[in-house]
Amino acid sequence: MHKTLITATALTGLFASPLLAETIGVSIPAATHGWAGALNYHAERTIERLEAANPDLDFVLTTTSGPSQQVSDIEDMVATRNIDALVVLPFESEPLTAPIQRVADGGVWVTVVDRGLAQEGIEDLYVAGDNDSFGRTAGTYFAENLDDGAKVVVMRGIASEVDNERVAGFEAALEGSGIEVLAMDHGNWNRDTAFGLMQDYLSRFPEIDAVWAADDDMAVGALAAIEQAGRTGEMIVVGGAGMKEMVARIRDNDTTVPVDVTYPPAMISTAIEMTALGVSGAAPVSGEFIIASELITADNAEDFYFEDSPY
């Protein structure tokens, strides 16, 4: 977190001077769930702020509901807007890898956000939360707070490098703990999908001690299914990303939601700002910028609750 604050301060100072005329394409998933909604919120406001401060800086923002549309959007940016840089959060890793490789091969600066591509080394800059830390932080909490032999169910996200890294970190933290993972299926970072998945888990397993949902939207869906089934009080639910609804539960000492794990959607702002600096040559920003996850507890929940946040 300290690294993030230092960089944000540096960016503010650098943007006091005009940047070169550049066109930057930004391609992100549509606001189909809370975290993506906040991602869109931060992207739009960052673009507005940078365009106001730098009249020669132009942006093309597209939002997508699937990988094929995202590929088409990016190809259109290159063909019709002649973009100098691309900031992209891949809807899925595998189908976007080859198209983004072609963009990079054409001389366009590429910043990949959050979901890594299936092949390393394509992008100039990678900005993301620490997905291993995200899963490991939740897993460590379980290992330290659940009894030996505790039974856990897991809700994975969309099949992607992000999901793989989160699950790997979670599983690594559980090694040797004696905790039993009953099932691990994809909830696609969607509360409705997670609601149905949790209903399935509840019908299959008479005893569940904890749910790990690798995203707060899925955690909300899981909580709704648990309440509907009348099994509140039997298990805890730990999600991630710092949704204010979840943070409020923690702050108010809801025993079903004891903790949460951070994963800030505002990382898109960092990615856009650093790309503007990198493509203009104003600062050397290539490489990786990783934001570690933190555990939100009743003791620090107030620090992570933002009333005006869209998420």
From TrEMBL:
SUPFAM superfamilies per UniProt: Periplasmic binding protein-like I
Entry keyword Nucleotide-binding: no
Similarity-based family: Belongs to the bacterial solute-binding protein 2 family.
GO molecular function, one term: carbohydrate binding
Annotated localization: Cell envelope
Organism of origin: Paracoccus aurantiacus
Name this polypeptide is given: Substrate-binding domain-containing protein
Periplasmic binding protein domain ranges (all copies): 24-275
Any one of the GO CC terms: cell envelope
Principal location: other
Pfam families, alphabetized: Peripla_BP_4
